[in-house]
C-alpha cells in the first residue's frame, strides 16, 4: 500500500523512528562537539591555572617579605595600638587618633611614590638628596648673582654722583688737569674705582641699572620658588623619617638585622643596585644611631 501512495500505520511508525534516529544523531553530534569544546576549554583553563600557580609560586618565592614597607608600618601601628591600650581612656583615644592619622599619611605617601621596599625608600632618599643639593647650589648661585648686581647698582650710583666732576677733569687741558685733579681727587678716584669695579663685576662698562633691577626681581622670584620646592622636600623627609623610624622600631622589636636581609637578597639574585640601596640604607641608619649616641653622651657629660 505504501508503494501505491497509501500511508499505513507501520509506515508512519517507521518514518517516526527514522525522524527520531535523525534527531538522536544530531543531538549526539552536538554533544560530541560540546564535549570536545569543553575538553579544550578545560585544558586551556588547566594550563592557565598551572601557569597562574607557577607565577604565584615565583612571586611568593621572590617576595622580600621583610622589605615590604606596608607590612612594616602595619606592624608598627599594631605595636603602637598595644601601647595605647595600656593608657587611660583619654590618652589612649588621643594616641590612637594621632597614630591613625600618621598611618594614613604613611600609606598614602608610599602609594603615591610607588615605594614598596627598603631599596625603593633608599632610592627615594637618594633622589631627594640630589634634588636638595641642586636646589641649594641653584639658590647659592642666584644669591651670589643678586649680591653682584646690588654692588653694580651701588657703584652705578657712585659713578652718577661723581660723573660731572670726572667729565670736567677729562675735559681740562694739560696745563690745568693736575691742579683740577688735586682739588677733586676724592671724587675722581671714586668714579674711576667704581667704573673699574663695574667692568670687573658685569664684564662691561655700560650702566644698566634698570636691567639689573629687573634681573634682581626675577632672581628673587626664582629663589622663592626654589625655597618652596626645598620646603616640599623637607616635608617629604619628615614623612620618610617617620617611615624609617617605624622600620627601625619593628626591626628592634622583632630582632631583625638588615644584614641578614641583605644576604637573603643576594641569594634571591636581586639586582646589585637593589642590594646597594639596602646597604646604603643600613649604613645611613647606623651613622644616624652613632650621631645620636654621641649627642647623648655629650649632654650627659655636660650635666655632670
Oligomer: single chain
Q: Give the SSE order as H and E letters.
A: HHHHHHHHH
Give the helix tally: 9
Count of separate structural domains:
2
**Mean pLDDT over all positions:** 79
Q: What is the helical fraction, as a range of percent?
A: over 70%
Estimate what percentage of residues fall within beta strands: under 5%
End-to-end separation in angstroms reads 133 Å
Query: Can you summarize the main beta sheet?
Result: none
Strand runs, count: 0
- The Cα radius of gyration reads 42 Å
Stretches where pLDDT is under 50 for at least 5 consecutive residues are 56-64
What overall geometry do the principal axes of the alpha carbons give? Answer: elongated
What does this structure look like?
This is MobA/MobL protein domain-containing protein. Residues 285-304 are annotated as: Disordered. Residues 181-243 form a coiled coil. This protein has 304 residues and is an all-alpha fold. Helix content is 87%, strand content 0%. It has helices at residues 9-62, 69-85, 89-112, 118-171, 174-183, 185-202, 209-254, 258-267, 272-303.
In short:
The protein is mostly helical. It has helices spanning 9-62, 69-85, 89-112, 118-171, 174-183, 185-202, 209-254, 258-267, 272-303.
Which features would summarize this protein structure in a list?
2 domains; 304 residues; mainly alpha; single chain; 9 helices; 0% strand; 87% helix
Amino acid at each position: 500500500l505504501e508503494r501505491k501512495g497509501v500511508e499505513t500505520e507501520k509506515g508512519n511508525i517507521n518514518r517516526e523512528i527514522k525522524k527520531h534516529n535523525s534527531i538522536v544523531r544530531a543531538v549526539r553530534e552536538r554533544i560530541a562537539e560540546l564535549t570536545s569544546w569543553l575538553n579544550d576549554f578545560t585544558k586551556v583553563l588547566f594550563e592557565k591555572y598551572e601557569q597562574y600557580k607557577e607565577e604565584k609560586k615565583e612571586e611568593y618565592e621572590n617576595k622580600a617579605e621583610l622589605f615590604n614597607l606596608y607590612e612594616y608600618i602595619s606592624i608598627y601601628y599594631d605595636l603602637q595600638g598595644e601601647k595605647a591600650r595600656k593608657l587611660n581612656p583619654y590618652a589612649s583615644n588621643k594616641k590612637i587618633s594621632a597614630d591613625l592619622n600618621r598611618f594614613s599619611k604613611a600609606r598614602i605617601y608610599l602609594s603615591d611614590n610607588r615605594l614598596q621596599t627598603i631599596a625603593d625608600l633608599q632610592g627615594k632618599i637618594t633622589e631627594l638628596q640630589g634634588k636638595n643639593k641642586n636646589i641649594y647650589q641653584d639658590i647659592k648661585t642666584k644669591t651670589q648673582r643678586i649680591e653682584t648686581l646690588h654692588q653694580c647698582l651701588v657703584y652705578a650710583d657712585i659713578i652718577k654722583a661723581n660723573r660731572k666732576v670726572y667729565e670736567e677733569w677729562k675735559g681740562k687741558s694739560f696745563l690745568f688737569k693736575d691742579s683740577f685733579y688735586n682739588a677733586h681727587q676724592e671724587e675722581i678716584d671714586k668714579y674711576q674705582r667704581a667704573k673699574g669695579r663695574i667692568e670687573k663685576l658685569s664684564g662691561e662698562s655700560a650702566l644698566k641699572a634698570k636691567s639689573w633691577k629687573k634681573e634682581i626681581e626675577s632672581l628673587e622670584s626664582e629663589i622663592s620658588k626654589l625655597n618652596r620646592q626645598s620646603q616640599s622636600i623637607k616635608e617629604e623627609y619628615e614623612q620618610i623619617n617617620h617611615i624609617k623610624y617605624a622600620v627601625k622600631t619593628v626591626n628592634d622589636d622583632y630582632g631583625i638585622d638588615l644584614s641578614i636581609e641583605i644576604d637573603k637578597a643576594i641569594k634571591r639574585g636581586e639586582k646589585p643596585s637593589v642590594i646597594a640601596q639596602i646597604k646604603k640604607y643600613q649604613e645611613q641608619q647606623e651613622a644616624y644611631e652613632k650621631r645620636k649616641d654621641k649627642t647623648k653622651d655629650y649632654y650627659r657629660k655636660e650635666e655632670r
